[in-house]
What does this fold into?
Amino acid sequence: MAEMLSPESAAKAGAAGKSTKLVAFPTESSYAVGSTGLIKSATRRVLQIKERSTLKPLAVLVHSTDAAKTWVEWTPLAETLAAKFWPGPLLLLLKPTAQGRLLTFPEYPTVAIRVPSNETARAMIAASGVPWVYTSANKSGKPPKLTAADVSAELGADIDAIVDGGAVPAGDPTIVDATGDKPRVTKVGLIPAEAIMGAPAA
It folds into this structure.
């Protein structure tokens, strides 16, 4: 397991993302590339280097459950699932708050948000003071990258910084619509659907 970023390194990486630079960093489900979610030019640049359609919105990372509540309309179901699976590879689909509308484009009714369990990622995001939009650090159609060297080989010319957190596991977050009373799993990833459906009610 890679050591957590020093406060100085976390602050440096966080400041880079906050200033719209593109930063690659480790998560518990492959390396990601992201930037501040509050400035659309950064979002568009992430999509551009990913070679990904703008028809598919980017997910959002925050450093804590309390931070998430600023950006999305929190539900009892979200509280239940976050208590059990955050920090971790669970993206919750929730309606944005008025502030949360800054994180997405007008045509999208929900925001996919999570708190990563990778300490390096969480420290960097916390230091930035802003939510990050992100996607896996690979071109669309290419396999996810599990080391900083692999990220550099594929995206190094297109991004501004890489945070080396050592080798990380492969996988995708599970995505769950938590806007209603019952969870609706829209994509199964590292957390099985059975675990989601078996979560106790709040």
Remarks:
- Strands lie at 23-27, 30-36, 59-61, 90-94, 111-114, 132-136, 161-162, 174-177, 184-187.
- Residues 127 and 169 are 24 Å apart (CA to CA).
